[in-house]
Amino acid sequence: xxxxxxxxxxxxxxxxxxxxxxxxxxxxxxxxxxxxxxxxxxxxxxxxxxxxxxxxxxxxxxxxxxxxxxxxxxxxxxxxxxxxxxxxxxxxxxxxxxxxxxxxxxxxxxxxxxxxxxxxxxxxxxxxxxxxxxxxxxxxxxxxxxxxxxxxxxxxxxxxxxxxxxxxxxxxxxxxxxxxx
Length: 181
What we know:
Elements: H1 4-17, E1 25-26, H2 27-38, H3 48-68, E2 75-76, H4 78-87, H5 92-106, E3 113-115, H6 116-127, H7 136-140, E4 147-149, H8 150-162
Antiparallel strand pairs: 1-2, 3-4
Helix pairs in contact: 2-3, 3-4, 3-5, 5-8
């Protein structure tokens, strides 16, 4: 069962995905998310990467809808999303595959590293708006070289979706967390 900490960080993502603010995630919300990712410079329409980005994002919608019940509901609330989050520790390979695709989409110059600016675009794209990040990148960049390499990014991404430890840096990979209430 998800902790209060996990609930709070995933609520921020839920709100970012819920394009119309309806309080539910619907297929069109994931289509809008895929379109946001499709607007990144490296994700050229019709490219292999564009197909992969869309497949990953829409794949998570289908898994989410399937997990919510046999009727494949048209809408998922926060409780339904958290039921999927509870299943993620058993789906580490799927989470890591998502990290790999997101990494490729964000690594604009294809150098195998995500810079501070590329990470900012990740956060802005994920949230659908410009988002102040403060010192988030510094927390993620353990070696202080100014980049996140693919293996490090995969660890951080997995921490975000699975960890309930507020001290793990990956919990901020998608942006700063709101202070605990």
